[in-house]
Design brief:
eight-stranded mixed β-sheet; 716 residues
Amino acid sequence: MTIRHHQIMYLLLFLLLSSVVSPVSALAGTGVASSTAEEQVVGSTSLGKAPIGGDSYMEVTDLLLLPGDQDGMVTFTVHVHNSGVSELSFKNYWVRLQSKAGSTFTANQLAQSGDTNRIAPGTSETYSFYAKVNATTKLQDLVIKLVQLDFSVSGFERVVGQMSPSTDYSVVTPVGANRSVQVDGTPFQMNINRTSISRNEDYYLPSIYFQMENKGTGTIKLPDLSYFIRTAQGHMYPLQATKVGKGMELQPLVEKEGLLSGSIPREAGAEGWQLVITETTTTSDGKSSLKLPVAFFEMPEAVEVEVSLGNDYEFSNKSGTYTARLTSLQRLPWEDQDILAANITLMNKGNQALPIPDLQGYFELDDAVTVEASLIRTDRVISLQPGKEVNLQLAGKIPYTSDFKDLNLVLQEKAADNQVSDLLTFHHNKELMGMNMIPTDGTRTLTDIGQSAAYSVRSTQTFEGEGADLFTVQLRVENLEKRFTDLRKQVAQFKAEDGTVFPAHMTAINNKIIPGGKALIYIYGTIPKGYKTADLQLILGDSATFQGTGSDKSAAQEEQGYVNAASFQLPDEIEEPKNGFAELDVYPYSLTLSHIGTQINFAQGTVMLDFDYDLKRDTLVETSMKDHSLIVELRDELSESGKEIIVSQTYELDGTDPIKSLQVGFHDATITYTNKDTIYKIRDMKSYQLNVYHQFQNGQKKLLATKELEWFIYTD
């Protein structure tokens, strides 16, 4: 059909073309505008040229076809080059579009293409067209005829050129290349910067980082662009665009990167994808809309990784673009269950602050069993600043007898209307679910915002009891924050080499810790009497409260557990007591006994044990010693076989009563024992055994020092 310039001048720009290719360029027919070792830029693709007198000619470029279910949309561009000495009028030329089978299609000129019908000598004009074609029409089926008004021929029409795409004609931008286009007359370069593809049970979840650069001289606002994934079967799936959508301003020579994300059914496959960009506009009468093809990009092949640990994946919502990284996924022992605990680092790689999204998720074992997870946040932040990150934990419980091979963690977002959408799926397997091991002299540093701290083990001790022993670990904690802060709540357990787990308790520190200050926590658990502790390890994690595993979620009770755990190798215990009483270690205290001696008043039947003591305390260490005490004890044999005299006193630490507690500083003390019958039965009064015990909890004791001393003789 004849198309003249005075017809339909509506629409907006039509893109595709970075600039008109020079007729003498050796690359004009290849579609490659420039190529270097570092970068390939794909420009206009020419179908051919038609001479229109002298050195003047018409050229057709960038024939695009966007297939559809009911019809297809074709766009192309005609360049008119006037190399003559007189003006040319485009009213004397028109374009016809048809198929090789003879079907004709109405070609309409875009309103903003070609500012004038007149082409002055030595200049060029560009005119863009669109047409609807049959749904079955292929790109290579099309024929474009360029017709000139000529009164010297029959019918007054002369075909000056006829062009059709070759069999190898392609407008798809190859992987790694840039595409040159024009937007509202402004040249742009577009490219896929990078991609990542995750998946869940039903969908592939691509994240495409799409980059645009304004190569013009003025600022431009993007028109209504849409983005799609087209699969190898031709199915089109929309993508959500962030930062490269309608109305976005692009300044000259400024690169803008946006994120394109969406969901592709797994049945569609992950091979042979293309990124399709279209522009939506309306007809001149405003009664119908048009979706015009803009550019096509070959997508890198989707690669499904077996394990997602340590890899960065991006997702976007209305607030912006986030990056998520699975930093650990652990299976932790807990009573008669195990805890699946995932640590996710959420990052903001943009230049604007983002809110913390309302995230949730679940675990999927061997693609068959779903385990609900609870979200635990340890960072004390309300927003995610540019270049910053926060740590999140997702945790759920399973029977400790559960066995599985592979595990998926599905990260979801809950919208304001309570609608839940899948964001990412992390893949993992059971072989990689171990805890980080902290060596004996090592330190574990946690950097959660507002709770940064360093953890290290100082020593181990076994306190002996009547029916069971108490195994303890002294844990040092250093506050790495710049403010006074409470210690983060932690959960501890002891685990043996054979997998046996002993629950443990931790002494509470109620005071805030100064910046750079230290705290000492006693971690203790009951073990069978005589149990070998050499192979025990300390498991330490952040305390967490999350939803129970009942079938009725509304009635499920909150349960305790822990996440973000590490295992500490423990130092060997100093088992042998000191043979003396200098600098006895009851950290953060240090005790020295001196000038030790005894007196006996036979008339009153009284034994007195006298001693001086020097008690020191590291005041920079915050701790609680309310369950700790010291026992000073004298023992000697009686004449009756198997019996002893025991003279002892239990002293509190951190107490205020000078009789019941030892006071910091240098002091003297006397322990008095009265029993005439017992005193007269002391065997020979030559020597006695003096013992000092550290007592903890319910009477369990550890012998710190012991020495045989002479009766009635005072030590130095």
